[in-house]
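Homework help thread (please don't just give me the answer)

Our assignment gives two proteins as sequence + structure token strings and asks us to describe the second one. The first is just a warm-up. Here they are:
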Amino acid sequence: EPPNVAVPTHFFKIILAVKENDSGKLHALGCFLIPNQPIPHDDPLETYMVPLNALERTTGLRFFENLKEETVPLCEATKCELIPPPKWIP
């Protein structure tokens, strides 16, 4: 009897980017929940964005509890896109 191996159905990534500008610091936050299956490389990355509090509820974890600054959505502050596989290899 082979051992059972748990394979996650999804994985997540949280990005907090901080950029200095003339008016101070810009905090951009992106939370992504991506299915553990092949996805089209031309899918908009925004398709997989979820609110931080939804990801915290799903994972049972707390992120950035001490962050006092307001954040803007990451994909509004910068270009968000999936990198096609041919560009993965330098």
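The one we have to describe:
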Amino acid sequence: GAIATDRQQRDILTPEYQALILDRQAIKRILQPSEVARLALWLVADDSAA
């Protein structure tokens, strides 16, 4: 899904483009970079081992 980086928020994420993106992705919200970072940290942590 879309991630709202500073650059995207400034240059790309107009209300029209945001509506288009949300219509085409499973998660119906724009993710924040901190959410992606937390996921990456969890994936490399021992807690994620099967």
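TA reply:
I won't write it for you, but here's a hint about the kind of observation we're looking for: The chain has one domain: 6-48.
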